[in-house]
Amino acid sequence: MRNEEMSGGSGESSPGFDAFYADCLWGAARLAHLLTGSASEAQDIAQDAMLAVRQRWTEIENPSAYLRATVVNLSRMAVRRWVRERRYANQRLATTVANPEYDETWHQLRRLPAQQRAVVVLRFYEDLSLAEIAHLLDTPMGTVKSTLHRALRNLKDVLP
Amino acid sequence: MNDDVDPQVAQHLRRTLTAVADTTPRPIPVASSTPNAQRRGRERLLMRAAAVALVVGGVGGIIAVAQHQGAAPATSVPPAPTEPGPEPIDDDPGVPGDEQCEVLSAEAERVAVATDPYGGADYEWWVAPTTGGGRSDTVVQVDAEGQVTGGLGGSLACTPTPRADIEWFGGGGQSGPPPLVSHGGHVSVEATAVVLTFPGQEPVELPVNPDGYFLTILPERPTGPFSAPERIDALGRDGRIVATTQPTSAGGN
């Protein structure tokens, strides 16, 4: 969730959870959509992540960062669950973007292994640094960098 | 930030991801005090809504079910190879009178497989019984490494639903280019193939598995998004038509 979506104008100093929830729910769903490829799964992930934030609302210093980390973790768990179970549950992964140029790129993005897609999303959608991504994914920065390069190599046919 | 990445590439990826994110439906806000309870309630509603015959579709795709009622007995089918199935959709036992049920994932069977005509992922159709005697249907996308990377949706019927002679579904919304549409279904009468006839197009003949299922992935028809065949014929061993149906679109996302 990018800052403007996370804060929604009220910022992280929002006095209560309700305002934070109203401001950031869609941003959480957008990030989950990109990480999982599933718009429908993203709805539940966003709600579950918000529940996690609410449970620790009085303890966490940076709700936006906590929410982002929770969405990333829940999305990774969802992808792993699909792999393990070899199924689905009413996923509607096939988002078609209006612009054909972007549609082709998204088509290839969805085919990336989950870790590569996560790095691309966090790097180019969330605008996180490699160090921030490494921290979020609990992975060495060198691994993040090589993962990003592999992802970009896999996407080269659809990139300018 | 990574200075090694071409700025044009970075910009293209940002725009793509933002465009996709913009398609994300806004979640329905729930009372912050009970988000989990609300979510479970929503799942229950979704499951109720899904308890209708065979319904499969992707984003933007039409969901269509065609049925042709007939008197012929259902074919006795051998079980398909099984693999460990999924966990139940929800651990909520429900309340008396509630239509909610659990999917008996350990009994899930893969009943049909189709391949992306452009050499992409395979698609697998899984069926599992439910605790209410009904059926759960799901079509998943599987990559070259056998990992599930997506799906074309699914349905859940908690209670038994009688099989029509020919059941058909069309699922759309696969991103292209060109867009792809799944066509699948089940034939209850003894048949070895089905012929899908599209308006103004060459008919498409598909084999029917021994247990009656068929599935294919086709480019979207130029006659319209996720266009349905105007006629489906099931062919017996001698090539004669043993059942026919004319699908009508029904439902939506």
Description:
The complex is a heterodimer of chains A (160) and B (253). The model of chain A is unreliable at 2-13 and 84-98 (pLDDT under 50). In chain A, 69% of the residues lie in helices and 0% in strands. The two termini of chain A are 25 Å apart. With 160 residues, chain A is mainly alpha-helical. In chain A, helix 2 (17-36) packs parallel to helix 4, helix 2 crosses helix 6 and helix 3 packs across helix 4. Chain B is mainly β. Chain B is globular. Classes of the chains: A mainly alpha (160), B mainly beta (253). At the A-B interface, helix 2, helix 3, helix 4, helix 5 and helix 6 of A face helix 1, helix 2, strand 4, strand 5 and strand 6 of B.
Pairing-aware structural class of the strands and helices of chain B? mainly beta
Shape of chain B: globular
| Euclidean distance between termini CA atoms of chain A | 25 Å
Nearest-integer average pLDDT of chain A: 77
Low-pLDDT segments, ≥5 res of chain A:
2-13, 84-98
Beta strand count of chain A: 0
Q: How many strands appear in the DSSP assignment of chain B?
A: 12
Query: What share of residues are in beta strands of chain B?
Result: 25-35%
Count of helix runs of chain B: 2
Largest sheet of chain A: none
Uncertain parts of chain B:
31-99
User: Which class of secondary structure composition applies to the elements of chain A?
Assistant: mainly alpha
Number of separate helices of chain A = 8
Query: How far apart lie the N and C ends of chain B?
Result: 39 Å
Q: What sort of overall outline of chain A do the alpha carbons produce when their principal axes are compared?
A: globular
Describe the structure concisely for a colleague.
The complex is a heterodimer of chains A (160) and B (253). Helices cover 69% and strands 0% of the residues of chain A. Chain A contains eight helices and no strands.
